[in-house]
Amino acid sequence: MFRSRAEKKVADAGYDPSRLPPGQYLTEKWPVLHAGSVPTVDLATWDFRIWGEVENPIRLSWEELEQLPSSEVTVDIHCVTRWSRFDTTFRGVHWSELAKLVQPKPGARFAVAHAEQGFTSNVPLEAIEADDALIAYGADGEPLTPDHGWPLRLMVPSRYFWKSAKWLRGIELLDHDRPGFWERYGYNNNADFTKEERYGF
User: Fold this and answer.
1) What is the pLDDT of residues 170-181, one digit of tens each?
2) In 29-159, at which residue ranges do the beta strands (DSSP E only) sit?
3) pLDDT at 3 (0 to 100)
4) Exposed, middle or buried by CB within 10 Å (0-12, 13-18, 19+), for 122?
5) CATH class of 41-73+89-195
6) pLDDT in tens, 107-117
7) Which of 61, 47, 146, 135 is closest to 99 using CA atoms?
8) How many Cβ atoms sit within 10 Å of the Cβ of residue 169?
9) Cα 189–194–195 angle (5° rounding)?
């Protein structure tokens, strides 16, 4: 017995219905959703920063970022607008490689992703430390498209996908939590899709 038509569709597609979080539906497409316009990026002047509760703040050029060891993960992604996309493959740099460079201080507990146009998103540091999280520059065997965050985005599959900030320019480590852009507009601060934490604290 299926809980919903959405679960039946997942089963009909050959997937385990338990993979679909509550309130979601499966799509093979990757819908494009963001506030504002797609930024114009010049890789010659682009950089990526990490600062805050770290021993060694860094600023990396695109070339320096690409030279770091890369990883690939395949994950399911879940949007607060209720779509889910299974088996999406991302390539990028795992946080552990960046942590070697910046050496987070013992008090670092939260990460704020800073993106183009002043957008921010916040997660506990453990969310970007997870094995399946990445600082991603590729998806499904290709570079990210501009609509999906090229040249760089955060990818945190343990949360609703608005936490995976597009057009990433930096990560600030903090000893306290600081709500991001959507959280200040009423979205849930934790955003655990297994608990349908969509709106409100």
Assistant:
1) 999 999 999 999
2) 47-52, 58-61, 71-78, 83-93, 110-115, 120-124, 134-139, 142-143, 153-155
3) 62
4) buried
5) alpha beta
6) 999 999 999 99
7) 135
8) 18
9) 55
In the numeric block, which tokens belong to residue 135? 């600082």
Residue pLDDT, tens place only, 9-68: 888 888 889 999 999 999 988 878 776 788 899 999 999 999 999 999 999 999 999 999
Run of H or E including 168? strand 168-174
Q: What is the largest CA-CA distance in the chain?
A: 55
Task: Give the helix ranges, DSSP H, for the chain.
Answer: 5-12, 62-66, 95-102, 125-129, 181-184
**In sequence order, which ranges of 84-141 are alpha helices (DSSP H)?**
95-102, 125-129
Distance CA 165, CA 47 (A): 16
Can you tell me the distance from the alpha carbon of 44 to that of 34, in angstroms, rounded to the nearest whole number?
A: 25
